[in-house]
Structure formats: C-alpha cells, structure tokens
Amino acid sequence: MLKLYGYWRSSAAYRVRIACALKGLEYENISVNLINNGGEQHLPAYGVLNPNHLVPTLQDGDLILNQSLAIIEYLDEAYPDRPLLPDEPTARAKVRAMAHNIAIDCHPLNNLRVLKYLTVELGVDDGQKARWYRHWVKTAFAGFELQLEQTSGLFCVGDVVSMADVCLVPQVYNAERFNVPMQEYPLLNGIVRRCRQMTSFAEAAPENQPDAVV
Amino acid sequence: MLKLYGYWRSSAAYRVRIACALKGLEYENISVNLINNGGEQHLPAYGVLNPNHLVPTLQDGDLILNQSLAIIEYLDEAYPDRPLLPDEPTARAKVRAMAHNIAIDCHPLNNLRVLKYLTVELGVDDGQKARWYRHWVKTAFAGFELQLEQTSGLFCVGDVVSMADVCLVPQVYNAERFNVPMQEYPLLNGIVRRCRQMTSFAEAAPENQPDAVV
C-alpha cells in the first residue's frame, strides 16, 4: 500500500491527499508533526526518507519520492485511472501552469520555515508577518483570477477537476487561516466552492485528518 | 516560430533557454527588462500575456503559457525529439522531484521581487539580505547533494541530461553571483561542470544573451 508522510495542516501534503482521494488510491497516512518537539521533520530518521526535511514524502514499494507535484504527476502516470491532467498537450500545459502559479509563486513564500525565519532571524513582528503573508497570496490570486477568465469552466481549466484545483483549494484554506480578503476573486471562489462540495476534497481536508488538532 | 519573453539574468527564463537549446528548438528571444523603467514586466501590455507579471512567457501559435516548468514540460510533449524527461515513471518522478527541489524550494525565495520586498517593506539591510539568500540556497543544495547520492550518474538523474539539470545550472549561476560557498557539494559541482561543457548550456547562459549587460 502507498505510504504518505504528511501533516494535517501542510498544504503540500493536503494536495497529495486530495489527489489520492480523487483517484481512489488508498494510502497509509503517517503523521510527521511539524510543530511538536521542534518539528519531527528534522529527525534524522525522517531525513533518510526526505533529505530536505519537508513534507510530504510518498513511498510506493521501493520508490521514495518527495515534492508534492512530482508525487501527483507520478501517481497520475503510474495509476492512470481518473486522470488529474487532461490528454491534450495545451490543456495539460495550462493545468501545470495554473498549479505552478500556486505551488511555485505563492506557497513557498509562506510556509512554516519561512515565517519562522522572518520572526527568528529578521525580527519581523506579527503585523509585518501577516502583511508579508497576505501580500504574496493577494499577488498570486490576482493573477490567478485573470488567468481563470481564459482557462476556467466549472474548474480551473475547463469543466474537469485537475491538478490545478488540487493546488488551489489548500492555498485558499491557508489564505482563510490568515484572514486574506477573498471578495476580489469571484471565479476562484466559485471553483473552490464546487471543489469543496466533492467528497474527495472533504475527506482530504486538514480538519478531517487523524492528526488534526482542532 | 516560438516566442520567448525573458530576461538574460532571470533563472526561470534561463531554464527555458537551456531546454530549447537541448531540444534544438529555435525561438524569437524577446527581452522584458526586469530593471529598467521600474521593470517592463509590470507594463500593462505584458500583463495581457502574463497576468502574474513575471518572466518567462512562451508563445506557440495561439498558446500563451507562463511558468518555466510548465513551459518545459509542454515543449517536451509537443516536440518530443531529444526528451528532457525519461520514459520510465519512477525515473520521470525523480527528475521532477529534483527539478522541483530547485524551482519550488529554493528559487522562489530568492528572486528579484522577494529581495525587493525584504529591502523596501521590511527594511532588511544588505548583510541580512545576503544571509537570507545564502540560507535558502544552502538548505536546498544540502538536501540536493544527499539526493544526488541516490539518483545521480553523470547528471542529476542517471547518465542523461534532464529537466533536473536544466533547473540546477541556473540556480548555481545565481548562487555564484551571491557568493554562496559551494565546496560542500561535490556531486552537484561535478554535474554542473559537465553541463557547462555542453554547447546548449553555454548558448543559453545569461552572458551570451543579446540583452545581457556585462
């Protein structure tokens, strides 16, 4: 069985959980607590699996794989039922670009280790940290909303759920945690609403994970 | 003909240039000067092509595509000669994970707009900014070097040049610009040396672009 090392609130792990749920793939969910004991991702035993000391990590037989989007693309190729990328090259490209708009241009700036660096190393106060967080989300979502005018139907790219939606929903979860104003993104909000009505997205949500603290 | 909107020093554009050179794809190189006039990427006309106001953007007939890795994967699917990803799913996964280790975990933290935010909005001084830069590169390269022990041959994944090498070389170019100490990464350095001996990597290098200021 697939093993997924993740954490309930990690939005990168959340992406992989959604992907597995959409594809009907069962997995053993192994919690790596990013907070307790200074962060279990820093333990040497976890470093053997993931030298970057980040979540998620997927284990599939002999394959040990890090990076959420590499994991999702792998699952889509190795288990092709219920694809998360369309067949046609330009549509595939659009899905990847929209996924990367979130996973590359937005999320890496706002994850736990970066916020910690701002506080500990740069002495940034809570107000500045919140502004930093909102700035990068708003910048990304503003561009995303404009691109949705070209690409979206019921979901980010056309009318079929894809890897782009898989990235968007966890980022919106994060944005809501940090009180980012969301009213300027009507297309984005509509898509997230539709996704959240799907069982697969609900099952994968942070609050529904065994290691959730709510 | 393909049109590539980029900038000589943008490492995301540099990736796409290397990919095109390796695949033997000709393109029209359109410079978007990220420095002059407050940054030409912010011009409304460019925003029509790329609502994120970042480089690169690829135009291929009717397709307008942003995100360097989405562009490279598109080129590899639409122009399959001289592939940048292997055929076998686990090897493909490793290439993507190694590419994302650079493109997701390292580069977004250190690009121009982020360094500008640190200075202008957070009042970070030059010494702190240099430490920030080096911290994220060193963190990424340390994990990368450990992963290379498992994945590398002559190049990042086995003995064939791939999208992982295409991401690594521009990141090393950046690291050298910011005087990141490099002696702790012997496998990484060996791969970069081999890449730089290839004509395709040399042709794509920043200093060899028409808009270079050296």
Automatic annotation (TrEMBL), chains A, B:
Domain GST N-terminal: 1-83
One record GO biological process: L-phenylalanine catabolic process
GO CC annotations on file: cytoplasm
GO molecular function: glutathione transferase activity; maleylacetoacetate isomerase activity
Pfam family, one: GST_N_3
The GST C-terminal domain, residue ranges: 88-214
InterPro entries (alphabetical): Glutathione-S-Trfase_C-like (IPR010987), Glutathione-S-Trfase_C_sf (IPR036282), Glutathione_S-Trfase (IPR040079), Glutathione_S-Trfase_N (IPR004045), GST_Zeta (IPR005955), GST_Zeta_C (IPR034330), GST_Zeta_N (IPR034333), Thioredoxin-like_sf (IPR036249)
UniProt KW keywords: Isomerase
Record's keyword annotation contains Isomerase: yes
Stated family: Belongs to the GST superfamily. Zeta family.
PANTHER family the record matches: GLUTATHIONE S-TRANSFERASE YFCF (PTHR42673:SF21), MALEYLACETOACETATE ISOMERASE (PTHR42673)
Protein name (Swiss-Prot/TrEMBL): Maleylacetoacetate isomerase
Lineage: Bacteria, Pseudomonadati, Pseudomonadota, Gammaproteobacteria, Alteromonadales
